[in-house]
Amino acid sequence: MWEIIPHSLSGHKENVMTAAQWTRRLNAALAVAVLVVAGCGGGGGGADNGNGSTGGGGTPPPPPPVESAGHVLPASKPGDLVAFVQDRLRARQARQSASPGTEFVVSAAATPSAAVVTSVGPEHSNTTVQEPGVDEDDLIKSDGTFIYTLDRDAAPEPGQGPTRLKVHRRRPDGGLELLRALRPPPPVEGTVAVHGMHYAPSAARLALLGDQFVGPPIEPCPPGAFCIAAGLLPPVPTRPNLLIDLVDVADPAQSALAGRIRIEGRLVGSRLIGNALYVVTQHLPQLAVEALPVDTPSAVREAEIAKLRAADLLPTISINGGAPQPLMAETDCTLQPKNASLGIEITSITAFDLGSATLQRASRCFVGGSEALYMSTASLYLATTRYDVALASDGRLIYPPQITTDIHKFALDGLAIDYKGSGNVQGHLGWDVAKKSYRMGEHHGDLRVLSFTGSQGWLAASDAQRKPASPATLTVLRERAGDSSLQVIATLPNAKRPQALGLAGEQIYAVRFAGPRGYLVTFRQIDPLYILDLADPADPGAVGELKMPGYSDHLFPFGEGLLLGVGRDASAEGRIGGVKLGLFDVADPALPRALDFLTVGDQGTYSALDSSAHGVNIFVRGGVARVGLPMASFGFTPGSVKHGLQRFEVDLSGRSLRSLSMIQAPDPAATPDLWSERSVQVESQVYYLTQGTLIGRDW
Question: pTM for the whole thing?
Answer without folding.
Answer: 0.85
